[in-house]
């Protein structure tokens, strides 16, 4: 038995929530290791739909769930989410949820700065405006407030002063009112007693779990093409989303992250700005969007849609450290007469079989497609290979060949049970 790390292998929204929920049934602990409430993981159980953002998906199954040190945490948003899932019947207590003491806090000033920058920028990133980038900047800039600071209110005034010395200069530059230190202190002191019961140590929790032989599931958010190093910079999020981050963002050694499962949608989508070589700005793209219900979980924005890009996934399998994939939303392709898969690009008349690192080339690469026959029968809800049409199997096999990784799981509807397991990632 091994641990499992789940990451997105495209631009996010691959359907990680469902798979993490499905896998967490067989894990004893679930850990988030990066990102923040920019993530949106939808989990459908019977007639109930849970939309999780900061809470690890393990809470749905009542599994001990850790928000690791690599996550940036908006404490107000966390409390709202706890209340929201509470209303839907999930009670989140400190027995279930642990927030790493060394996780950085996202404050209203981060959200505001994210918004000010996006509104003022000539070239927008299309962020979720949740303050994720600005809070990671403060973390690296060594002026951030962390969860543990809420346990020591007497230390807050000096830390707030240091933080505001930086932020108020920026705010003046944007023509915005400065942040009032006293008001921020009051609101932090007010929220502290509600958050502190959850605060603990991610690394010690994980060490104890390891010693007890427990199986751990590391839950990635966003995806490799949004990784701050390996993604389509600057149109990326502000954290590392590759599997390697699971170790640093939770406080375990790299060998503890176990099997890496990359979640891959059967076509491609992206929210926000940035290059997207196989994007379809036509009726086919609209059809994919409608059939796949491609609207962002967090912001409600319409997702851009396009054909499967094997060049990108071949690359993210390598940079992300993916051992096997879970292919999702195959049923969205039901009924297409033919399907295209991008096998390589052309740039300046030359063949290119990877995504170049510079944004200009990324915008200029032209996808070269291979056409595969579609299928008319439905794959929705299939629970075994035998239930899949022959052409659907051919499509899956061709994708495996092109990306250099095999399918471990196949998801055929949002429902938890509509999952075909080819290889058990925990074994
Ligand atoms: P940020 O993470 O809010 O800074 O946004 C940076 C980029 O990442 C934008 O293009 C967002 O649309 C994208 N992004 C952030 N979180 C997610 C996610 O969970 N799914 C898909 N895209 C995301």
Description:
The model has no long low-confidence stretch (mean pLDDT 96). The chain is an alpha/beta fold and 427 residues long. The chain has twelve helices and 20 strands. It is 31% helix and 20% strand. Helix 3 (108-120) packs across helix 4 and helix 5 crosses helix 6 (181-195). It is globular. The chain has helices at 16-24, 75-87, 108-120, 132-140, 156-173, 181-195, 202-211, 244-248, 283-291, 310-320, 359-364, 390-403, and strands spanning 4-8, 29-32, 41-45, 48-52, 64-67, 72-73, 97-100, 104-105, 199-200, 216-219, 259-265, 268-270, 304-306, 308-309, 324-328, 338-347, 350-352, 366-373, 407-411, 419-421. It has a ten-stranded mixed beta sheet with strand order 9-7-5-2-10-1-11-15-19-20, sandwiched between helices. Strands 14, 16, 17 and 18 form a four-stranded mixed beta sheet that branches. The protein has a two-stranded antiparallel sheet with strand order 3-4. The chain has three domains: 4-102 and 199-259, Adenylosuccinate Synthetase, subunit A, domain 1 (Adenylosuccinate Synthetase, Chain A, domain 1), CATH 3.40.440; 104-195, Adenylosuccinate Synthetase, subunit A, domain 2 (Orthogonal Bundle), CATH 1.10.300.10; 264-421, Adenylosuccinate Synthetase, subunit A, domain 3 (Adenylosuccinate Synthetase, Chain A, domain 3), CATH 3.90.170.10.
Question: Quick gist of this model?
Answer:
This protein has 427 residues and is of the alpha/beta class. 31% of the residues lie in helices and 20% in strands.
């Amino acid at each position: 038995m091994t641990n499992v790390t789940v990451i997105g292998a495209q631009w996010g929204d691959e359907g990680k929530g469902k798979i993490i929920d499905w896998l967490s049934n067989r894990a004893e602990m679930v850990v988030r290791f990066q990102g923040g409430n920019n993530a949106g993981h939808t989990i459908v159980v019977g007639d109930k739909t849970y939309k999780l953002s900061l809470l690890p998906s393990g809470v749905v199954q009542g599994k001990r769930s850790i928000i690791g040190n690599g996550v940036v945490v908006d404490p107000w948003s966390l409390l709202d989410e706890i209340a929201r899932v509470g209303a839907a019947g999930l009670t989140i207590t400190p027995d279930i949820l642990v927030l790493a003491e060394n996780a950085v806090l996202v404050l209203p000033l981060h959200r505001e700065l994210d918004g000010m920058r996006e509104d003022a920028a000539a070239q927008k990133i299309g962020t979720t405006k949740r303050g994720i980038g600005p809070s990671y900047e403060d973390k690296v800039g060594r002026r951030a407030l962390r969860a543990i600071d809420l346990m020591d209110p007497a230390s807050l005034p000096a830390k707030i002063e240091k933080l505001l010395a930086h932020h108020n200069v920026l705010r003046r530059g944007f023509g915005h009112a400065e942040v009032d230190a006293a008001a921020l202190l009051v609101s932090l002191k007010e929220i502290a007693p509600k958050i502190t019961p959850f605060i603990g140590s991610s690394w010690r929790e994980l060490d104890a779990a390891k010693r007890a032989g427990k199986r751990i599931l590391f839950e990635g958010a966003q995806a490799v093409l949004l990784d701050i190093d390996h993604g389509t910079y600057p149109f990326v999020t502000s954290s590392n989303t590759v599997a390697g981050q699971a170790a640093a963002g939770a406080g375990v050694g790299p060998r503890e992250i176990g099997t890496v499962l990359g979640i891959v949608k059967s076509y491609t989508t992206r929210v926000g700005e940035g290059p997207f070589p196989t994007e379809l700005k036509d009726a086919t793209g609209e059809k994919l969007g409608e059939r796949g219900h491609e609207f962002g979980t967090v912001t409600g924005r319409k997702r851009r849609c396009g054909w499967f890009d094997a060049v990108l996934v071949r690359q993210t399998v390598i940079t992300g450290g993916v051992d096997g994939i879970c292919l999702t939303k195959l049923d969205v392709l039901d009924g297409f007469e033919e399907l295209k898969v991008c096998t390589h690009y052309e740039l300046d008349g030359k063949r290119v079989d990877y995504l170049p690192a510079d944004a200009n080339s990324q915008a200029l690469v032209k996808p070269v497609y291979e056409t595969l026959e579609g299928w008319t029968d439905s794959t929705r809800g299939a629970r075994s290979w035998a239930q899949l049409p022959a052409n659907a199997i051919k499509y899956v096999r061709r994708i495996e060949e092109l990306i250099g990784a095999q399918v471990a799981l196949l998801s055929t509807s949002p429902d938890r049970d509509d999952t075909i397991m080819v290889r058990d990632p925990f074994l």
